[in-house]
Design brief:
Helix content: 10-25%
Strand order of the largest sheet: 13-14-15-17-16
Distance between the termini: 50 Å
Structural class: alpha+beta
Low-confidence stretches: 115-123, 398-406
Strand content: 15-25%
Number of helices: 9
Length: about 400
């Protein structure tokens, strides 16, 4: 329902109605359930689309395309209400970060850790650099996939989704999108205007003569790591001639903490390596990284942590039923989560869990408790130490419905 009019997406006037709603900032109401669920109109490239409000996926009917499985199944659950606070009036999510977007004096460059030692404390409610990347990916819909989208997701779409997601987030009262730089698709014939737009976007982080200076957030795809006279430089795709400098110590820590992501990326030329970093500019115009984290994604831009998730995601990518890749956010690797979900599986959603071969007793107990806490979600478990990946639920059901061809 848009305004007082109930419309279908195949109505002749649908696009015009959607355009008017976008201009007036009217909130469409999804009628999948009795009370309805508020949504908003977003512009991705030149296309207007209706999207769910941040963290509202559970308000939709399980068979609605906008439904999301419970946040407790991933690392997002512990952050809601603390690190992520959504204002229902405007749909904006206020974020609390555990890293700084300004810098005063000298500071060693750090690589955001992927391992979080010690107990999980509920009072720690801030987004790490990696968790912010996961949240952008999640809110941008880049964790969702169906085989119908094969060959249709490129950097242009990825960037649009990320910027659209960032437009719904604030940091310390300011718009996150104003502190986020995601390089636009580079075209040689447009080089001059692209470089000019980049210079304008980064104008605020030019180093002042004294005092603190602003840092910018970068999300981009790594093209290569190259040696510099001092340290390393990271070359980002779609940013030719604009390397980011990384100190030797930070480079060594990055290789150690993100060894799995680097190995996955190096082992498959179709994969992409995503970097999120805070960076600033020296008075001479050199871009230097302050903090950095990495994430490996598949050819379909779906995040993976290890070879077991790679195997699962490759199977999901061939299915027509929509799947949603789970993300860890701040969760330690020793804590279970749903690697993926089938949110629209019937008669109930399915959560897919992977038990790694080195899982200890605490991991297995935590997994059992997670499954028991959500009886409305059907579990599928791959215990890697016990053998090959089990047949996925949708494939199992399909095989039982089909008559034998023998």
């Amino acid at each position: 329902m848009i305004g007082q009019v109930i419309v279908e997406d195949d109505d002749p006037e649908f696009n015009a109605t959607l355009g008017e709603a976008y201009r007036l900032r009217d909130r469409p109401i999804c009628l999948c359930c009795d009370k309805g669920a508020s949504m908003y109109v977003a512009k991705i490239g030149e296309q207007l689309v209706i999207k769910r409000m941040p963290l509202s996926g559970g308000e939709h009917d399980p068979q609605c395309p906008s439904y999301e499985p419970p946040y407790e199944l991933s690392g997002l659950g512990p952050l809601i209400g603390g690190a992520i606070q959504v204002d229902p009036a405007n749909g904006l999510a206020a974020l609390k970060l555990d890293f700084s977007l300004s810098k005063r004096g000298a500071k060693k460059v750090t690589a955001a850790p992927t391992q979080y030692g010690g107990p999980v404390k509920n009072e720690i409610r801030k987004l790490s650099l990696r968790a912010l990347l996961h949240y952008l990916w999640h809110q941008g819909g880049l964790t969702e996939w169906t085989a119908h989208w094969a060959g249709k997701r490129h950097w242009f779409q990825v960037r649009s989704h990320l910027m659209d997601a960032a437009a719904t987030m604030t940091v310390k009262g300011g718009a996150l999108v104003e502190r986020l730089f995601v390089p636009e698709t580079f075209r040689l014939e447009d080089k001059a205007v692209i470089v000019q737009r980049r210079a304008l976007a980064l104008e605020d982080i030019r180093a002042p003569a004294s005092g603190s200076r602003k840092l910018m957030l970068l999300v981009g795809e790594v093209k290569e790591f190259a040696s510099a006279r001092s340290g390393q430089k990271i070359v980002i795709k779609h940013m030719p001639g604009f390397p980011l400098m990384l100190e030797d110590g930070a480079w060594r820590r990055l290789q150690s903490r993100y060894a799995a992501a680097l190995e996955l990326w190096q082992a498959n030329e179709a994969f992409h390596l995503i970097v999120i970093a805070t960076f600033g500019m020296t008075p001479s115009g050199i871009a230097g990284i302050d903090e950095i984290a990495l994430m490996c994604v598949t050819e379909q831009w779906l995040p993976i942590e290890n070879a077991y998730e790679q195997r699962l995601v490759e199977s999901l990518a061939r299915l027509s039923l929509k799947s949603v890749k789970g993300l860890r956010f701040n969760l330690p690797s020793a804590q279970p989560m749903a690697a993926a979900t089938f949110p629209h599986h019937r008669p109930s959603p399915v959560a897919l869990y992977i038990v790694p071969p080195d899982a200890d007793g605490d991991f297995k107990v935590a997994l059992a408790e997670m499954i028991a806490a959500r009886p409305d979600v059907e579990p599928w478990i791959w215990r890697v130490a016990e053998g090959e990946m089990p047949v996925l639920p949708v494939l199992s059901e399909f095989s039982t419905r089909q008559p034998s061809r023998s």
